[in-house]
Every structure is written in structure tokens, then in C-alpha cells.
Design goal:
Blueprint (H helix, E strand, L loop, with lengths): L21 E3 L4 E3 L10 H6 L18
InterPro entries: GRASP_targ (IPR026496), Rbsml_synth_pep_Strp (IPR025744)
Protein name: ATP-grasp-modified RiPP
Organism: Streptomyces crystallinus
């Protein structure tokens, strides 16, 4: 049996980066291995693609133009 055509071009998915921080439910924020809030390291947050959500902000009366 022949290999399907598409499999000749398939590539494995790139590995997903692992965030260098974990979520602390007691503090309710991401913390570094040394216990410091991850927000203190802007480069780490940027590399980890952590973002703030603005979802729902347009539903508040004081947020509209």
C-alpha cells in the first residue's frame, strides 16, 4: 500500500514552550521558582505570551466612548 501523498510533506508540530512560572492560587498570580511574582520579570512574561484580557470591558457603561 502506498503512503498517502500528504504524509510526504507532513512535519511534526513544534514543541510548545514551557512557562518558567507557575500559578499560585493563594496569591492569585503567576510566580517564579524563587517565589517572586512573575510580573516583576517583563521579559519572561513577554516570552511566555501571557496577556491581560479585555474581554467584556466594552459592556461597562464607563468604558464606552
Amino acid at each position: 500500500m502506498q503512503q498517502p501523498f500528504a504524509l510526504g510533506f507532513a512535519r511534526p508540530a513544534p514543541a510548545q514552550p514551557v512557562a518558567p512560572f507557575t500559578y499560585d492560587s493563594g496569591m492569585q498570580l503567576n510566580v517564579l521558582p524563587n517565589g517572586a511574582p512573575a510580573v516583576t520579570e517583563a521579559d519572561i512574561i513577554t516570552l511566555g505570551s501571557a496577556t491581560q484580557s479585555t474581554a467584556g470591558s466594552a459592556t461597562h457603561n464607563d468604558d464606552t466612548d
